[in-house]
Amino acid sequence: MIALHGFRAAVIAAGVILCLSLTLSAMGGSNSSLDRAGTRKCSTHLGEVEVQILGPEESEKPLILALHGMSSADFILREWDAIASQLAGQGYRVALPNLHSNPKTAPKMLGGVTETDAAQLLQMLVSELSPLRPIVLMGKSWGGATAAKFAHRHPDLVEKLVLVCPASTPPLDLRLPLLLLWAEDDWVTWFRQGVRAYEECPQLTLQSSKKGGHRILPEYWQPLQSFLAPQ
């Protein structure tokens, strides 16, 4: 009987893992077609950080730098992959830093990279990757809050800002074009409370979805395209 229960538990566990894998694949979080050979190491005051680079070497369009969420799980680190591939296909050069590639730059609930260090780190990445032009900065969850605070500190370095369900921040006086993407049923960062931190931004574009949870949704692609188009 014990063996039978153990067998059933193993079958159930395998089913859960399979369902989770299929879900992550469908949401674009694990895109095996994205070439990881383009990884380079960028120097920061905290040591080297791995940055995946996609798109042409030379582009007339601004560099896009996208920040991941807090977790070191692979599907979180790769959650921008699907959109990054599409952007690269449209001629953008896209940078995807992996802040967990260096323990000193890794975000954590406790004892992770500080807000001040994160801002200095981003400033050094921008200086190395796009020294002559402001960038488009994107971030999801922890990366969204970090991106917003950086844009507030360094408005001269950020041309446009894209935030997906950003973690909590105090209201920020952001004067640049801002695209805010959020699912109303997000169970990690609450939609209605979170939006209040940005509703006074004069150049805010808000795109919400009724359902989608705490994810980068495929339906965000169209509003992102429109937002990035030259005005």
TrEMBL record:
Report domain AB hydrolase-1 positions: 62-176
The UniProt record lists the keyword Signal: yes
**Keyword annotations of the record:** Signal
List the GO cellular component terms: membrane
Organism the protein comes from: Effrenium voratum
Which range is the signal sequence, renumbered to this chain? 1-25
Asked if the record carries the keyword Cytoplasm, the reply is no
The family database entries (Pfam families) matched by this protein are listed as: Abhydrolase_1
Q: What protein name is recorded for this chain?
A: AB hydrolase-1 domain-containing protein
At the top level of its lineage, which domain of life is listed?
Answer: Eukaryota
**Which SUPFAM superfamilies does the annotation name?**
alpha/beta-Hydrolases (SSF53474)
Residue stretches in coiled coil: none
